[in-house]
Amino acid sequence: MSDANPNPHDAGQTPAEPGVKAGHSYDGIQEYDNPTPFWWNALFIGTIVFSPIYVLWFHSPYSGNTHAARYEVALAANLRKQFGELGDLPQTGDTVVKYMNDQKWQAVGQATFLTHCASCHGKNGAGISAPNLTDDLYVHVKEPGDIVDVLQKGRKAGSMPAWENRLHPNELVLTAAYVASMRGQDLQGKNWPGEKPIDPWPEAPAE
Length: 207
Hints:
Shape: elongated
Order of helices and strands: EEHHHHHHEHHE
Distance between the termini: 102 Å
Number of helices: 8
Strand content: 5-15%
Structural class: mainly alpha
Low-confidence stretches: 8-16
């Protein structure tokens, strides 16, 4: 009985070799000219074109689109729901100092700063197109309560925006507390006309 599928090698035959050969061989091995499919090349080129967009969008130091930044924003949004336990915070220097080292509520100030202030003051507060917030030199601030006033009313004919109609009053205080906490890092930043050294922040008021 004959085999329905004979092995061509057993019969001394060379199996059929479909396709076009590339025209060269290495150690007797023939290479077929099988080009990469168009869809694969298009996908590869697409990833190259998309990669700088991805890097700028998700990894820019001035962007709030990283997973960590979005988590901080979500955390701050959740904490805002708890503003009821704070009541209406007095917009005073004592309140700013009181919350300056409160890790729980600083998350709100930090998220607000990164969302609205980092584009000018820098993510770390060292300043880009606005004053350095990490040293002892200030233009419009002499005591912690002045930070709240600057946030509320703005300065320099709008170059520092007024936020009193765009942020919750408690957010203004907590953002001021976060800004005040940046002082003392002395990061290298841009000097600003009119800056003058001010006294250290006062001690936090007793509970």
